[in-house]
């Protein structure tokens, strides 16, 4: 996994840092695992913008990912490592012994031809999915379930990982990428290893056009808006705009939005670092 800095032969390439895609082995996805992807451009059913600065972008197909890893004790072989436009991590195509094919999030170091398996009988090797009660303490994991059978929700983006710290009764203690330490049921599944494409954070787009390809439109600074458009807008001359806040008036810096009555608060041992 490596990145490359382009020569400044055009203004858009002057600061451009690109991914080398060394791990990717094919450019053609598995057709049976593709689904159409409808774009809403940030509008709700009434046609009003609820998510600003969206629209346009390249047409994409959704890759159906197996976050549950529910094919237990069925061996699979890695057929290819592929790029997925819907996420920062790479994905791996698995071909199971019964002929079924599925995509999973590819961990670092996964090779074509490697054998993978999920279930309690699987070994704690990179790419295998096991319940937390069967994973050795201190192991680096990703794609972790919050509830057994729900499918992996935590530590799924490029280069992220969590660590299994301890087990006590029916709960396991996990340190998450955000720095939060929380309890998860030992019956929940997780995948061993670090998520692939760890150099994703080093990429530099170089020009505004690349954001447009991703469906992101230009952002207008709230300070230059009118009072009708944003809480930070208005004022004579170059007004500072008051305290930073969202369009709905929620403060942006240091304001906690998590409910104090949320049921899962009891599972959080240590909050994430500010």
Name the descriptors.
single chain; 274 residues; mainly beta; SH3 type barrels; Ribosomal protein L2, domain 3; seven-stranded antiparallel β-sheet; four-stranded antiparallel β-sheet; 1 helix; 17 strands; 2% helix; globular
Structural topology:
Layout: E1 3-5, E2 17-19, E3 34-36, E4 61-63, E5 76-82, E6 91-96, E7 101-105, E8 115-116, E9 129-131, E10 140-142, E11 144-145, E12 152-154, E13 162-168, E14 171-175, E15 181-185, E16 189-192, H1 208-213, E17 268-270
Antiparallel strand pairs: 1-2, 3-4, 5-6, 5-8, 6-7, 9-16, 10-13, 10-16, 11-12, 13-14, 14-15, 15-17
Quick gist of this model?
The protein has 274 residues and is mainly beta. The chain is built from 1 helix and 17 strands. The strands form 5 sheets. The chain has a 7-stranded antiparallel beta sheet with strand order 9-16-10-13-14-15-17, with no helix packed on it.
Unreliable parts: none
Report on the biggest sheet. 7 strands, antiparallel
Principal-axis shape equals globular
Compressed to H and E, one letter per element, the order equals: EEEEEEEEEEEEEEEEHE
Query: What separation lies between the terminal Cα atoms?
Result: 30 Å
**Total helical segments:** 1
- How would you describe the oligomerization state of the chains in this entry? single chain
Measured by DSSP, the beta-strand proportion falls in 15-25%
Second rung of CATH, namely the architecture of the largest domain: Roll
CATH class of the largest domain: Mainly Beta
Strand order of the largest sheet: 9-16-10-13-14-15-17
């Amino acid at each position: 996994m490596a990145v490359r800095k382009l020569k400044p032969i055009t203004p858009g390439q002057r600061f451009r840092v690109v991914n080398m895609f060394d791990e990717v082995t094919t450019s053609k996805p598995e057709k049976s695992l593709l689904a159409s992807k409808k774009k809403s451009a940030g509008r709700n059913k009434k046609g009003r913008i609820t998510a600003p600065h969206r629209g346009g972008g390249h047409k994409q197909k959704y890759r159906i990912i197996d976050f549950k890893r529910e094919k237990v004790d069925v061996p699979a072989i890695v057929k290819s490592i592929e790029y997925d436009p819907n996420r920062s991590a790479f994905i791996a195509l698995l071909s199971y012994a019964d002929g079924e094919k599925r995509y999973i999030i590819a961990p670092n170091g996964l090779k074509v031809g490697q054998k993978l398996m999920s279930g309690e009988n699987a070994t704690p090797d990179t790419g295998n999915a096991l319940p937390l009660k069967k994973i050795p303490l201190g192991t680096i994991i990703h794609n972790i379930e919050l509830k057994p059978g729900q499918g992996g929700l935590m530590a799924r983006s490029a280069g992220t990982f969590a660590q299994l710290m301890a087990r006590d009764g029916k709960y396991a203690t996990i340190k998450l990428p955000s720095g939060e330490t929380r309890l998860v049921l030992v019956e929940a599944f997780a995948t061993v290893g670090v998520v692939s494409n760890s150099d994703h954070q080093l990429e530099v787009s170089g020009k505004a056009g690349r954001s447009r390809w991703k469906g992101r439109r230009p952002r207008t600074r709230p300070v230059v808006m009118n009072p009708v458009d944003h809480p930070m807008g208005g004022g004579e001359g170059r007004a500072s705009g008051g305290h930073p806040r969202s369009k709905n008036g929620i403060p942006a810096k240091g304001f906690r939005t998590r409910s104090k009555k949320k049921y899962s608060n009891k599972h959080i041992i240590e909050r994430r670092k500010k």
